[in-house]
Amino acid sequence: MYRIERDRSRFREIVRGRIREDLRKYLSSTELLGRRGDKTVSIPVPQIELPRFRFGDNKKQGVGQGPGKKGQPVDGDAQDGDGAGGAGENPGQHILEVDVELDELAEMLGQELELPNIEPRGDRLLSADGGRYTGIRSTGPKSLRHFRRTYKNALRRTIASGDWDPLAPKVVPVREDERMRWRKENPRPESSAVIFHIMDVSGSMGREQKDIVRIKAFWIDTWLRSQYDNLEVVYIVHDAVAKVVDQETFFHLRESGGTKISSAYDLCLAQIQERFRPEDWNIYPFHYSDGDNWSARDTERCVGLLRDEILPRVNQFCYGQVKSAYGSGQFKKDLDSSLQDSERLVTANVDDREGIAEAIRIFLGKGR
């Protein structure tokens, strides 16, 4: 049994090494997005075989069984025939899907991109977690009976009542002697965070741009979940108006029309004020757009909202500009020039999928 576990651990180390080698490939593809569970993700790892036994059909006769003479062909051997295809010389590629915990995947991401751990800003107490069975009380289930305390109480009672006989020592606990273990609650501070994924769904954002956003959001969520005990995600989409949607709608919504970015920032601010107090939550808005806004006046309003209302309340605001054939890319230039002194604003360009890893490193590399 120990040998099996040792071999299994060695195999998993081989798999981890292969995943680390190919991590850059996974950072730029949608291959993992449909395989994510609550705590694990299924990763296809090529060219690694897991040995296993296969059961055969023992009813058939084979070599060494049944009648036959030396040199006589056995059924199933290669025979002359007129096969439709020619023989190949290249080996096949074997795919093995391995379940990897999201915390482990986040650790690989942190090592690959050299990401620092985050120091949480907000705390809140959750009394449901924590606590040990260090207390004693007189009531409780029999399964929690403290034998030593119960026996000592019974012994004291027996001696005090005069029933103790040194020649025939006998101690029989009664109900009043019993003491039970008791779990003392020990509330501990649990760091909480909320992510706002905000995406432009106007006509200029095509399918490729949305896939890039989807990949970035997956890896950002994976990293932040490894840093915080409690994480919530809010999805906001906007064109000329903004609305809160679920995850499925966020990644598959197809809309057209103009772009008014301030509508999304107004909605994000309202959510922070109503649901996520900065004293209790670490707040991370991520905005994805191709850089088009309907007017310079609305851009000025966005800058004012960020500078006066949103940035003072959040750990960090990240703007990722996805290159599009229809987007001007002007919005990032306006943010960089107007809020260049703000440490809580981080912007990045993503020209294609190959730029996703660098954008994630820029967003999460500050450790805020």
Keywords:
368 residues, alpha/beta, Rossmann fold, 3 domains, seven-stranded mixed β-sheet, two-stranded antiparallel ribbon, 10 helices, 20% strand
* Helical/strand content category: alpha/beta
Order of helices and strands: HHEEHEEHEEHEEHHEHEHEH
Calculate Rg over CA atoms.
32 Å
Biggest sheet features: 7 strands, mixed
The portion of residues assigned to helices is 25-40%
- Determine the CATH superfamily of the largest domain: von Willebrand factor, type A domain
Into which percentage range does the β-strand content fall? 15-25%
Taking the alpha carbons of the first and last residues, their distance comes to 45 Å
pLDDT < 50 stretches: 123-129
Can you offer a commentary on this structure?
With 368 residues, the protein is of the alpha/beta class. It has three domains: 1-51 and 93-114, no CATH class; 132-184, no CATH class; 191-364, 3-Layer(aba) Sandwich (Rossmann fold). The protein has ten helices and eleven strands. The strands form three sheets. Strands 3, 6, 7, 8, 9, 10 and 11 form a seven-stranded mixed beta sheet that branches. It has a two-stranded antiparallel sheet with strand order 1-2. The two termini are 45 Å apart. Residues 123-129 have low confidence and may be disordered.
